[in-house]
TrEMBL record:
<dbReference type="GO" id="GO:0022627">
    <property type="term" value="C:cytosolic small ribosomal subunit"/>
</dbReference>
<dbReference type="InterPro" id="IPR019984">
    <property type="entry name" value="Ribosomal_uS17_bact/chlr"/>
</dbReference>
<dbReference type="InterPro" id="IPR012340">
    <property type="entry name" value="NA-bd_OB-fold"/>
</dbReference>
<comment type="function">
    <text>One of the primary rRNA binding proteins, it binds specifically to the 5'-end of 16S ribosomal RNA.</text>
</comment>
<comment type="similarity">
    <text>Belongs to the universal ribosomal protein uS17 family.</text>
</comment>
<keyword id="KW-0689">Ribosomal protein</keyword>
<keyword id="KW-0694">RNA-binding</keyword>
<dbReference type="InterPro" id="IPR000266">
    <property type="entry name" value="Ribosomal_uS17"/>
</dbReference>
<dbReference type="GO" id="GO:0019843">
    <property type="term" value="F:rRNA binding"/>
</dbReference>
<keyword id="KW-0699">rRNA-binding</keyword>
<protein>
    <recommendedName>
        <fullName>Small ribosomal subunit protein uS17</fullName>
    </recommendedName>
</protein>
<dbReference type="Pfam" id="PF00366">
    <property type="entry name" value="Ribosomal_S17"/>
</dbReference>
<dbReference type="GO" id="GO:0003735">
    <property type="term" value="F:structural constituent of ribosome"/>
</dbReference>
<comment type="subunit">
    <text>Part of the 30S ribosomal subunit.</text>
</comment>
<dbReference type="GO" id="GO:0006412">
    <property type="term" value="P:translation"/>
</dbReference>
<keyword id="KW-0687">Ribonucleoprotein</keyword>
<dbReference type="InterPro" id="IPR019979">
    <property type="entry name" value="Ribosomal_uS17_CS"/>
</dbReference>
Amino acid sequence: MAEERNSRKVRRGYVVSDKMDKTISVELEQRSTHPLYGKVVRTTRTVKAHDENNEAHVGDLVSIMETRPLSKTKRWRLESIIERAK
């Protein structure tokens, strides 16, 4: 069971919304190099993550882990809070 959990994706991102009950919206940033010009391009996407105890707040840097589908849009869960917002 532990080996299966280790193969799940883990991402870091900032909480952009915590207005829902037991759910947070996390903005994930991906950096990639443009194939022709070589410029580093930032692309962001927002995912919903399960926060069982409502402990994360807007601006927190969090670690989220992939999980089974919890609802229509939730496929991630809060793993830990890395840094609190100031």
